[in-house]
Automatic annotation (TrEMBL), chains A, B, C, D:
<dbReference type="GO" id="GO:0008193">
    <property type="term" value="F:tRNA guanylyltransferase activity"/>
</dbReference>
<feature type="domain" description="tRNAHis guanylyltransferase catalytic">
    <location>
        <begin position="6"/>
        <end position="135"/>
    </location>
</feature>
<dbReference type="GO" id="GO:0006400">
    <property type="term" value="P:tRNA modification"/>
</dbReference>
<keyword id="KW-0460">Magnesium</keyword>
<feature type="binding site">
    <location>
        <position position="29"/>
    </location>
    <ligand>
        <name>Mg(2+) 2</name>
    </ligand>
</feature>
<dbReference type="InterPro" id="IPR007537">
    <property type="entry name" value="tRNAHis_GuaTrfase_Thg1"/>
</dbReference>
<dbReference type="Pfam" id="PF04446">
    <property type="entry name" value="Thg1"/>
</dbReference>
<feature type="binding site">
    <location>
        <position position="30"/>
    </location>
    <ligand>
        <name>Mg(2+) 1</name>
    </ligand>
</feature>
<dbReference type="InterPro" id="IPR025845">
    <property type="entry name" value="Thg1_C_dom"/>
</dbReference>
<dbReference type="InterPro" id="IPR038469">
    <property type="entry name" value="tRNAHis_GuaTrfase_Thg1_sf"/>
</dbReference>
<dbReference type="Pfam" id="PF14413">
    <property type="entry name" value="Thg1C"/>
</dbReference>
<dbReference type="InterPro" id="IPR024956">
    <property type="entry name" value="tRNAHis_GuaTrfase_cat"/>
</dbReference>
<keyword id="KW-0547">Nucleotide-binding</keyword>
<dbReference type="GO" id="GO:0005525">
    <property type="term" value="F:GTP binding"/>
</dbReference>
<protein>
    <recommendedName>
        <fullName>tRNA(His) guanylyltransferase</fullName>
        <ecNumber>2.7.7.79</ecNumber>
    </recommendedName>
</protein>
<keyword id="KW-0819">tRNA processing</keyword>
<comment type="function">
    <text>Adds a GMP to the 5'-end of tRNA(His) after transcription and RNase P cleavage.</text>
</comment>
Amino acid sequence: MANSRYEYVRNFEQPDNLLPSTWLVVRVDGKGFTKFTTKHEFKKPNDIRALDLMNRAAKVVMENMDEIAISYGQSDEFSFVFSKDAKAYGRRASKLMTLLVSQFTSAYVFYWSEFFPDTKLQFPPAFDSRVVMYPSDRIMRDYLCWRQVDCHINNMYNTCFWTLVDKGGITPKEAEKRLSGTFKKDKHELLYGFDMNYNNELEIFKKGSVLVRDKVFVDVVDRQNVVTKREKTVVKIKHCDIIKDAFWKEHPEILGEEETRSERNE
Amino acid sequence: MANSRYEYVRNFEQPDNLLPSTWLVVRVDGKGFTKFTTKHEFKKPNDIRALDLMNRAAKVVMENMDEIAISYGQSDEFSFVFSKDAKAYGRRASKLMTLLVSQFTSAYVFYWSEFFPDTKLQFPPAFDSRVVMYPSDRIMRDYLCWRQVDCHINNMYNTCFWTLVDKGGITPKEAEKRLSGTFKKDKHELLYGFDMNYNNELEIFKKGSVLVRDKVFVDVVDRQNVVTKREKTVVKIKHCDIIKDAFWKEHPEILGEEETRSERNE
Amino acid sequence: MANSRYEYVRNFEQPDNLLPSTWLVVRVDGKGFTKFTTKHEFKKPNDIRALDLMNRAAKVVMENMDEIAISYGQSDEFSFVFSKDAKAYGRRASKLMTLLVSQFTSAYVFYWSEFFPDTKLQFPPAFDSRVVMYPSDRIMRDYLCWRQVDCHINNMYNTCFWTLVDKGGITPKEAEKRLSGTFKKDKHELLYGFDMNYNNELEIFKKGSVLVRDKVFVDVVDRQNVVTKREKTVVKIKHCDIIKDAFWKEHPEILGEEETRSERNE
Amino acid sequence: MANSRYEYVRNFEQPDNLLPSTWLVVRVDGKGFTKFTTKHEFKKPNDIRALDLMNRAAKVVMENMDEIAISYGQSDEFSFVFSKDAKAYGRRASKLMTLLVSQFTSAYVFYWSEFFPDTKLQFPPAFDSRVVMYPSDRIMRDYLCWRQVDCHINNMYNTCFWTLVDKGGITPKEAEKRLSGTFKKDKHELLYGFDMNYNNELEIFKKGSVLVRDKVFVDVVDRQNVVTKREKTVVKIKHCDIIKDAFWKEHPEILGEEETRSERNE
């Protein structure tokens, strides 16, 4: 083949397969979203349309990569947790990271007009992604705790900040100063002063979004018009606590049973 | 901070900075494009609208990442060559690969309707990407040769194949068999039999697309309506040979001057 | 400093820190030991002096690196298992691998004459090493099982082989043919034919060597000649089964207790 | 095979092949040599026996690994430069680093008594090693410049320091203070004050040791006692400048001719 003379350049590609039997977390992050949200007039502190669009894009990703056990999203970021035994693309880091971020971005732009029917997309947004290995269930769960606590802290802060600016009529700079050094209790009280109860805020704002797989029964109609039920796996979006054990007991399929040696070898 | 308890999970992120002073090539590849092109009825063997859209997306990438010295695209793939001294994102492999593929995908979906005004996008397409280091100018150039020769070989084959099917009226299977074992000369003759001259095919089909930066002078109008010329760097799309030396002599800025030690340290 | 002009070359060093919370196994292997053992007339199938020297060298390594939880050696190889939480040298792969293999080799040559008083070392022997991460206790244990089963299989084969050659008076080639396709039972019977019982072979040959840490009480004499007992950790060499659970129950300190999150963060 | 049940653990080994067409430098460094040199009463600032022993060990390494183009040593460190096209062990980083440091250490202990006939080795010394890729000739040369300049700076400082302590009769602490902030010129003058001329110091102290390969003719005697000359490659030890171009012009075989594409593919 005439091309073989140059094909030696392929030898410069280096393998990047991730360690077997570890949880793989791919996190997608909005690139320059401060500018993007301003340009598209996102509501502050949270724009429900934007969060729903993020969830829609994440759903596409989960439907395309069936080894993702659970996903978690908040603000302009989304984390996808591949099961410990995931085999997709030979666990090559670059394949997993790039395909996933590409699918996510593609769906985000594709479904934009469905969630922002009155706002024209001004320029193509971008996301980056990374992949991290977590060797044990506990550490993988701690990763998700980290993101959900981050969601909580940021949302509480931002809710206070924009309340001070929008209802309190002070400048962003003054709001920042006002909030500096305050604790959770102080923030709750501050909101009460504006007749707001933080606990009544939307769960999607306070907890973020959790995507899990669920089994449902769908009607299948055959040629003779006979209807039968068939089990189907679908992606469900929840806004619940994933820090406490309760969630994990309700979803035992995520962690799976502890593998035994014999299973691994059959 | 309440979050610190979980923050230890960040220690599992591993650095992936690429070697300094090497050319970095990020190649973007269409994922499952056989299905995608069928679904969207791309013209065979080449759909000029699809190639123009690829070029448009690549242009967005080059405008966003100014350390890309040259890009080369053909079919559903695009290669971006970062200069040896590129410093973007600390040369972190994951950042470069994922941001780039995300920007490319985003622009592809964003500009779709401009290039396919009569074809609705049916589902969000995806691309993967990888990054490879090339230590010398010669090897980086050989990489580009590899891709351009690949373009040439595939295009010649596909042109014959679809001519046999479309004009010759034989089945794809028969066409494949007919072409098996043929040489360049045979393929030229085959096309002559259909009154076609391969040399008259479009350059974009035969050579692919080369994106380089060019300096142009644009008119700048100030408040007093005084017009002045200002130099501006723009991305130009060419369909030329990049295998022979001529191209590189015309574009000395791509390889740059051989760095000297003193320069490197200032 | 006059040297700063060249110091940029340090930027080409790339980090290679291993994943936290995984078992690290460094295995040392003899390089070209077929030639080495022939040249130094090692007894076949096992030379107890050589195995004792390997153990002596491994002991030096364990005394120098206190995060090694257990080591296992057989033939011309030795595996060192660093605890999941080992922090030595920031878990840099190159530091761990190279220092360990250097210490091992150094001790091997240093103590040679103690174990081979009548055999002059002819040339300096060499070992290579590698490091592998194992994410769970079970998989790390399976690694050790792999090596101990390997010891067993090889030793049984070699015992038969050299019995056939030494006592049976057949050529190595014939012995190889004679053993081809035989099972464990056949090998036991073969040895019986030479009045040998495989079960009576030395444990160090059949099981290899297991190095663990043990606490002992030593007498400490002060200036007034008062003797007090003090606890001291020493390295013990055993030749026991490490496949079954019994060993691990006797040595709970190797696996340690399952870490809890709070511990990890204090 | 009974062992196959555990053999899955091999899947956890990760490839670490280094980039083709780059210079590979493996540097060996003494571990805890301050203690080692004190314990073995090395002469200060330089012990010629110790440097000769380092060179002897390095020679063994070069004789065993014929793709090493040049080595450079000073103090308790030695750098080995593998040619750009070296293929040994598939360019696996761990194999190269560990075998090399093991061979070096082994030879160091093996030859100790030859260079220190009156000093018994008290305990087995250890070295670590690392491997770094350098993409161009210039950068690889700058690496060697870095080490030779380092040798020069340290040796000048140490020569002054030990002169002040040994001949000047001041304490190490005072000597350190006395030298703080001094320039090259000051140090030359300081030595003149003790009737010493730095330029007359041994070249091995000022320049370190450069090991290159040289072709010599050796007499070969056959059975009929006929003597013929045969070319043989030997390792030569020099103490010359490797910063200026002169050295590289005298040794064109180190850099080799610029490879051309056609060569690379044949």
